[in-house]
From TrEMBL, chain A:
Name of protein: Chemotaxis protein methyltransferase CheR
An example Gene Ontology biological process: methylation
Keywords from the named record: Methyltransferase, Transferase
Pfam families in the record: CheR, CheR_N
TrEMBL record, chain B:
Name assigned to this protein: protein-glutamate methylesterase
Any one Pfam family match given in the protein's UniProt record, by short name: CheB_methylest
The entry's keywords: Chemotaxis, Hydrolase, Membrane, Transmembrane, Transmembrane helix
InterPro entries documented for this protein: CheB_C (IPR035909), Sig_transdc_resp-reg_Me-estase (IPR000673)
Stretches of the chain forming a coiled coil according to its record: none
Length: 269, 193
């Protein structure tokens, strides 16, 4: 049994020793991840787990990888991607240059989906996609652009549901159970670590996607991060969140207007 | 039956269900009083990306305000909440919801175990957990945690379940306080305080 006080101590250690600030994460899921890690790594007690995290920097890497949830998919929620195609890209297309930020991009499935949409809208050449996450290991996977081949059937179905008209397999080369996505797509992706808790705005964007990341933060941190997004969006820029996340009741809600049923907001002031 | 008035006031009833549970809810919800002094939280296995029309459908069966949960929603007595498809549903100490998109548990997201376990920690003896029809083992571990934290555990009488495996599995592996059919459930729930 791990007590809430134990978790607090551990979080203080992480902040003091390594500068990683998890103190404003949603406690219920954070604790669940910690209990899970203590169990799969077979620590006899929480004290031993805490000692390992405090003293072993290589274990810290594992801690960050396992505590954060990296599950993701290509074209997850096809109707969301359909709205990007139909409602957002035509507007962005009128700009000379398009900058998109995927905050908390995990292994990059969402970023490659976006690159495919841009390609099909004829906009990829004038676009840049910034892919950031706090976890360096997932970013390595974005860099490679290689995903398990067995997923492609489902991704292809979602792609078609999102309004895709091509043969999805045109976008990758299959090899040894892996699908390597075309260089043309990955060339447009700029990869960098960025911690939403502690790092500041680094550019001005036309569209920011931060999906299924805010669910791991408490309300206060959500507000801080939303302010960061507000500061990083140009006028009339767009902000997209996960299907169960909202700007309602947030500090920036009055500056944004929701477009339609999808979780996409336009910055109106 | 246990005397309800000796127990701590109930703050939440969580209903977990899988295959064959929707019909149970359609029969049960109309029998429940509105304005019950606790929240009802429903965790159902459903097909991926399944429509959010399920909460609309359920709300036609009850006078109580019914909605699919969004992240950080505050939990209110008298309301009915439905776990959204494809997220685990967790409960925070300050009695609000958090969603989690981590790996499936028991091949399921939402997993009933995850919500039962998380709720057991927050509500302790003030929690009632009810497990309905289904064809897998989800829910049993969670019921054990509910019991350990002093809460009340109930399963649908397997004889009345379209898929008896899930409630039966729970009866075999953990302590169940009540085994009820639908009319008994409604009577029990309407008299909870
Ligand atoms: C569930 S994934 C979401 C992936 C993708 N956006 C999607 O919706 O499919 C959550 C990601 O958020 C990242 N994350 C968590 N805390 C973060 C932080 N403070 N700053 C940046 N990224 C963070 C995790 O490392 C993880 O890759």
């Amino acid at each position: 049994m791990i007590e809430d006080e134990d978790v607090e101590l551990l979080l203080t250690d992480l902040l003091d020793i390594y500068g990683y600030d998890f103190t404003s994460y949603s406690k219920a899921s954070l604790k669940r991840r910690i209990v899970r890690l203590v169990s799969i790594d077979k620590f006899p007690s929480f004290a031993e787990f805490r000692y390992k995290v405090r003293t072993d920097e290589s274990y810290l890497k594992r801690f960050v990888e396992e505590i954060t949830v990296n599950v993701t998919e290509m074209f997850r929620d096809p109707s969301f991607y359909k709205s990007l195609r139909d409602d957002i890209l035509p507007v962005l297309g009128t700009k000379p240059f398009i900058r998109i930020w995927h905050a908390g991009c995990s292994t990059g499935e969402e970023v490659f989906s976006m690159a495919i949409l841009l390609k099909e809208a004829g906009l990829l050449r004038k676009s840049l996609l910034y892919a950031t996450d706090l976890n360096p290991s997932v970013l390595e996977k974005v860099r490679k652009g290689i995903f398990p081949l067995q997923q492609m059937k489902q991704y292809s179905e979602s792609y078609i549901e999102s309004g895709g008209l091509k043969d999805f397999s045109e976008y990758y080369t299959a090899n040894y159970g892996q699908a390597k996505f075309n260089k043309e797509l990955s060339e447009k992706i700029i990869i960098s670590t960025h911690n939403l808790v502690s790092d500041s705005s680094f550019n001005e964007f036309d569209l920011i996607l931060c999906r299924n990341v805010l669910i791991y933060f408490d309300k206060d941190l959500q507000d801080r991060v939303l302010k960061l997004f507000d500061a990083s969006l140009g006028t009339l820029g767009y902000l997209a969140l996960g299907t169960k996340e909202t700007l309602k009741f947030s500090v920036i809600q009055n500056k944004f207007k929701q477009l339609n049923r999808e979780k996409i907001w336009k910055k109106i002031m | 039956m246990e005397e309800n008035h000796v127990a701590k006031a109930v703050k939440a009833l969580i209903i977990g269900g899988s295959a064959g549970s929707l019909q149970v809810l359609f029969n049960l919800l109309p029998l429940l009083k509105s304005n019950l002094p606790f929240a009802i939280i429903i965790v159902l296995h459903r097909r991926h990306s399944a429509d959010s029309s399920l909460s609309d459908l359920l709300s036609t069966k009850t006078m109580s305000p019914t909605r699919e949960v969004e992240d950080k929603d505050v939990i209110r007595a008298g309301h009915i909440y439905l776990a959204p498809a494809d997220y685990h549903l967790l409960i925070e100490k300050q009695e609000s919801f958090s969603l989690d998109y981590s790996e499936k548990i028991n091949f399921s997201r939402p997993s009933i175990d995850v919500t039962f376990e998380s709720a057991a920690e927050v509500y302790g003896p003030s929690l009632v957990a009810l497990l309905l029809s289904g064809a897998n083992e989800d829910g049993t571990k969670g019921l054990s945690q509910v019991k350990k934290a002093g809460g009340t555990t109930i399963v649908q009488n397997p004889d009345t379940a379209q898929m008896p495996y899930m409630p039966h599995y729970a009866m075999m592996h953990t302590v169940i306080d009540h085994i009820l059919d639908v009319p008994q459930m409604s009577h029990y729930i309407n008299n909870l305080r």
